[in-house]
What does this fold into?
Amino acid sequence: MDSNMDIADIVAFWRGQQKADAHGRWTHQIDQDVLGTGPHSFNLDHPVSPYIGDVLIAPVIILNANAGYNPVQTPTEFPDAPSVSAYTARVDDPSGSDWSFVSRYYNDTNYGHLVASGKVVVVNACAYRSPRISDKNEADNRAMIKRLPSSIMMRRWLLEAILPIAAKGHRLIINNRGQHWRLGHAAPAPGIVRDPCPASPRITSTALSAMNDFLGNRA
It folds into this structure.
């Protein structure tokens, strides 16, 4: 039987594995067959986003749905080869990277500065990009999250590596888009705070207070 996962396994899983194929489609190699058979409408034109921030040491973990896509803004984040390389390098080495500049989406949040300082990491249930996963026209994408090998791995990492240390008070999990993580009976576990307004880019007051209290007690 496989042993439980360790927190570092998420980085080992993604390091060096997201690449563009001959058609310029960015995927983790393990997902290529599932994505190839579809159906889905994920945009694969740019590097994917499994996590934003230092996933190895950030004390607060915000559970998000998937990487966002804006047809105007997203291409500007990857104007050339060096920008692509810099982006994938942060995924490969989150603890050795500068997270002070992230997607402009996080300028509209109330926790972006905490990502930059290494106190918060956003982890996506699905690393692939789409405009709005909750929209009715993304039903195929929501269904695919349940089948994607990388998403299955991310969920296992959360359950096996993160929930146990959160229960001991070493991490705080903000359950922002928990339906895509399918927490089930684990949703009310110690160390998890549910955000009652999960569709907003901003963390609501209940979760934000819990997050600030947790960080303050660690100071």
